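Sample intake sheet
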Amino acid sequence: MDLNRVIEHLLSVVVERKASDLFITAGWPPSVKIDGAIYSATKHPVSAEQSHDMVLGLMNDRQREEFRTTNECQFVIDRPRLGRFRVSAFVQREATDRMIDGVSRVHDEAHRGRRP
């Protein structure tokens, strides 16, 4: 499975469905938030490894190091045909370790032109 293609597809779902957020959580199908309600974006759950690899694939080296050190990282990604997205990646420990990634579309014009 090409995880870069998967994340690009999920970001396109965010745009097409006018979702405010994308959630990638190990053990669950990726989900989008639309008008305050959460909907599955795919039928298949992602594994902890897939979730981890997807999130790391969005980061540059500095962000990966911050994530490894602190178990969290917040940054912005820019996709030419899709727009800019704020990413909040962190590890949550409950019964098992799981990766949660919240991706929100940047609509604010003040964020345009800034680089992560």
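Comment: Residues 94-98, 108-116 have pLDDT under 50 and may be disordered. The first helix runs from residue 3 to 16.
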